[in-house]
Design brief:
about 100 residues; mainly alpha; Helix Hairpins; two-stranded antiparallel ribbon; 3 helices; exonuclease; EC 3.1.11.6; Exodeoxyribonuclease 7 small subunit
Length: about 100
C-alpha cells in the first residue's frame, strides 16, 4: 500500500464521518481516501468497530464525490452556433 493510501486510510478513522468532515475536501483527495477505505475493507483484516467507522466515512465520501460531480456537470456548457457557423453563445449541455 502506498504511503498516500495508508495516510488516507488512517485519516478515514480519525476524520469526522459527517458532511462537515468532507465539505472542504477536493474531489481528488476525497476519491483517494475512498479508495484507501475500499482497499482496507477488501483486505478483511480490520476489526469490526473500525470497519463500521470507515464504512460510514466511505459513504460520506461517496456522497461528497457525487455532489461535486453533479456540480461539475451543471457547469459544463455547450457552445451554440449562429446561422453563419460562428459561436453565438452557450447553452446547458444536454447529456440525456
Amino acid at each position: 500500500m502506498s504511503a498516500a493510501r495508508s495516510d488516507a486510510s488512517r485519516a478515514a478513522v480519525s476524520a469526522p464521518a459527517g458532511p462537515a468532515g468532507t465539505a472542504d475536501l477536493p474531489f481528488e483527495k476525497a476519491l483517494e481516501e475512498l479508495e484507501g477505505i475500499v482497499q482496507r475493507l477488501e483486505q478483511g483484516n480490520v476489526p469490526l468497530d473500525e470497519s463500521v467507522a470507515i464504512y460510514e466515512r466511505g459513504e460520506a465520501l461517496k456522497r461528497h464525490c457525487e455532489t461535486l460531480l453533479q456540480r461539475a456537470e451543471a457547469r459544463i456548457q455547450r457552445i451554440t452556433l449562429g446561422a453563419d457557423g460562428r459561436a453565438a453563445g452557450t447553452a446547458p449541455l444536454d447529456v440525456a
